Amino acid sequence: MNLESLTIAEARRALDSKEYSALELTNAYLDAIAKKDGDIHAYLEVWEKEARTEAKAADEAIARNDIQPLTGIPLAMKDNILIEGRTASAASKILENYRASYDATVTTKLKAQKVVFLGRTNMDEFAMGSSTETSAYGVTKNPHDTRRVPGGSSGGSAAAVSGTMALAALGSDTGGSIRQPASLTGIVGMKPTYGAVSRFGLMALASSLDQIGPLTKTVEDARIVFEAIRGHDPKDSTSLPDVTANDTKSRTLGVPWAFLAEGSEPDVLQRFETTLQHLKDKGYKIRDVLLPNLAFSLAVYYIIQPAEASTNLARYDGIRYGLSVRADSIGEVYSKTRALGFGREVRRRILIGTFVLSSGYADAYYRKARAVRELIRTDFEREFESVDAVVMPTTPSPAFTFGAKSDPLAMYAEDIFATPANLAGVPAISVPSGTVMRDGVALPVGFQIIAPHGREETLFAIGEDAESKS
Ligand code: GLN
Q1: Which domain holds residue 27?
Q2: Which ligand 1 atom sits nearest the alpha carbon of residue 415?
Q3: Hey, which of 12, 271, 331, 456 has its CA 20 to 30 A from 361?
Q4: Do 189 and 329 sit in the same domain of this protein?
Q5: What pLDDT is attached to residue 470?
């Protein structure tokens, strides 16, 4: 069993032909975690005992020939997705001892397939960040260069897969939190169409932007996990009906060159062009697209996201969940609990969100941002009449060193290419696109594909063409 190159598809074949058992596979991953995670710190908690029990149950199912695509596959969960009876903290002190009282819908679906849950992974606190540095429980290191961040906010999930400490992982993506860490750690990360995967049991960050999605080694694996977790859910009022749009098979890609020129480092752009050339060689047509309002994505995102986050996080008040600081009055319980329980970035976003929603400023900021969000959505709609997908780098630069983006605006700029897909609600995937050199180390970068609403099949098909030649 070679964990380095192992994929879900390959493990499925080996498990079904009894080359090894789910328990042996799980033990191999638990060994890898024991060996490497002291340094990387992808996991906040490893569920060793439970994982073995789940692996045995999977082996019994396989023996009965009751096999589904993820039966016995060891997977890691981001710390903001609920599993009944287990701790889920969103890497925040305010939820340090919070135990989930129910399963997220994705958890229910994965349990039905008998996956093995290896543990919960580190993340930026409440998924706010692009480096996993805002976790209340220490940083996660990039397996490609431990002086550098793995990206975020799903940095633990990305490092677990990239560091071969899980075969796949779930993450959440509000403004790039699956795709950006996937890009920085050299794996595949996919954000589904808004509403394709239920958000029930995902701790809400910004409800109109959040989606759960897979982090995997290959596009094929991302498709397998997506198929397992997708589907209409009456418990999520924004969940879409179950419809699968067929792949269009025509292949025209749009590149918003004017937008890309804004922030990409030259060698990252070069890698992007190399992957683009491979696609051209495969018969793809490439067109320039304008998407004029993409330039406002970052500004719009950093108004809408904090606005929604500030209302969603109002529930952490010291009474209903987790941490509670004693005080003389109820008002003081709220303020002391929140001052102690939330980290700096979370407090900053709550302040920004409350400000842009306040009566004197909502017209100037929040409502304006929502109007521009509509323009971004229609920009995409218009271009998707003539192209099958829009492509761009996932991030403007490769993984950065710890502390390098301590200025919040520099950190936010990291999301420039990731936020448009969330604002428009369309599906997007990041696939590995080779490496660039920094300080003598080859660091991975990602090639991002953005498809029309509900067109995951097109996304995966193009993703497979892009990854095979990059
Ligand atoms: N980096 C972005 C932010 O800090 C995206 C986070 C996310 O997708 N959860 O908001």
Answers
A1: 8-229
A2: 1
A3: 331
A4: no
A5: 44
